[in-house]
Amino acid sequence: MVFTPAWRNFKRMQDLTVLAACLIYTGAVLHAFRTLPSPTSLVAQGTLLWPAPFLILSLLVPLAIPALRRGLTKYVWMSFKAGFGQTASSVLIGIGLLVGAAAFVYSQLAANDAELKFAGVFAAYAAGIGILAAQAMLVRSLERRPDVREVIEER
Question: Which residue windows are transmembrane per the record (predicted)?
């Protein structure tokens, strides 16, 4: 099956958004280990252990609950129809949002001390990654729908 350039760009943008968010998260975790005055075990808990359930739940819940899956699938389809990931401006806006989120995470690290106060921002960012990954997965499920294939396949 050969897809239109618009669909290929959209699909690529979904995947790259997840990858970029994961790289930003990894950078923030490494930065936390380098800069926080907390014991290593505390930093590991706040950046990896406690955020993990948020990532898993935000990935699995929208895929497992039919009403949420339908809603998120509709959102993904509307994003494609609106041109997200297909134009330079939409790519720049997406990158800007990721950079803004990264700046917030780094600012929270700079403002925290040896307590687990920083864990909340990591949990929130992990949940965001879960939603982005769910969207990227739904792109592939959309490809199997006949009504969508009529729009996204090259003829």
Answer: 48-68, 88-106, 118-139
Q: What is the pLDDT of residues 127-155, one digit of tens each?
A: 999 999 999 999 999 999 999 999 999 87
> How many domains would you assign to the chain?
1
pTM here?
A: 0.90
Domain of residue 36, residue span: 5-152
Closest CA to 25 of 113, 124, 95, 93: 124
Distance CA 32, CA 56 (A): 22
Per-residue pLDDT of 109-130, as tens digits, reads 877 655 667 888 899 999 999 9
